[in-house]
Amino acid sequence: MFINIDPSSGLPIYIQIAQQIKTAVAMGRLQPEEPLPSVRQLAVDLAVNPNTVARAYLDLEIEGVIYKRQGAGTFVSGQGVEMSKAERRRVLTELLEKALVEGVNLGLSEQELRETFDRVLDKILLGRAPEPVGK
Amino acid sequence: MFINIDPSSGLPIYIQIAQQIKTAVAMGRLQPEEPLPSVRQLAVDLAVNPNTVARAYLDLEIEGVIYKRQGAGTFVSGQGVEMSKAERRRVLTELLEKALVEGVNLGLSEQELRETFDRVLDKILLGRAPEPVGK
DNA sequence: GTCACTGTATTAGTTGACTGATACAGTGGC
DNA sequence: GCCACTGTATCAGTCAACTAATACAGTGAC
């Protein structure tokens, strides 16, 4: 599996799991309808309690990134989250503001902020290139 | 004072304080060398324990946003943080990645991501307009 | 229906984050 | 030196987050 836990990171295990899956989905490394490893299987792989994996999956389900079918398994959601556009932009704005406030306080120039943004955006959108634009 | 605590936010008080001061500094609402309210004063204003304010100030000092002089007071730092440029870009990259992963998973288009970025960046840089570029 | 797999629920222990009370220590105007 | 202000240190209580052990419940191939 593509997930690895960093015990020294200070971040809760279930957050690390959720975060990495979320990133994989965003980058297209995990495709819609693709099954995720079972709660138990992933728990064994990562040497953690099944409940911890379940907790990560639960959070992702609430966010709409994945969905579960009792007894059957867990799968990547087909489409984006059910949320008003205004709400989605509000969430994004908040996160971007946090990032940029940090960047400005670190003394980075406007140009550096823009460059970094472009670089990160490109990296994320690359894996989705095949058919995201015209969809 | 410009700080207000939202008890329902779930965020620790000292984080809320630190965050708002950090944002104020980034946006130029707090100028370099400007004194901050004393630990005790702000504690009274916000109706929290002085230690809680001190904790926020400590974090901000560690990050280099402010500095303190025992017995004298607390002030906004003159310049950006002491950190290698590589390190600073790493921090920014991490935060931007988090924001953009979220945005992509929310189903926002590349254009929407770029627009939101521009809007947020403009808002932050506005207060600093007088003399940041040529400095 | 059975078996081997799915996710779910309950309960509980540990740990550390968070906040606060209180006492200590430095600074500077008078 | 004194006083009124600064920030600092110590200690302790509360509470919730996090993880785990264990038992429950749905699914589907056979």
Features:
135 residues, homodimer, 5 helices, Arc Repressor Mutant, subunit A, three-stranded antiparallel sheet, DNA-binding, 2 domains
In words, what does this structure look like?
The first copy, chain A, contains five helices and three strands. In chain A, helix 1 crosses helix 3. Chain A has two domains: 7-76, Winged helix-like DNA-binding domain superfamily/Winged helix DNA-binding domain (Arc Repressor Mutant, subunit A); 85-126. Helices cover 55% and strands 7% of the residues of chain A. A three-stranded antiparallel beta sheet of chain A has the order 1-3-2. In chain A, strand 2 and strand 3 form a beta hairpin. The radius of gyration of chain A is 17 Å and the shape is globular. Chain A has 135 residues and is mainly alpha-helical. Chain A binds chain B through residues 22-23, 25-27, 63, 65, 79-81, 83, 88-89, 91-93, 95-108, 110, 112-114, 116-117, 119-121, 123-125, 128, 133, and chain B through 22-23, 25-27, 63, 65, 79-81, 83, 88-89, 91-93, 95-108, 110, 112-114, 116-117, 119-121, 123-125, 128, 133. Chain A binds a DNA duplex (30 and 30 nucleotides) through helix 3.
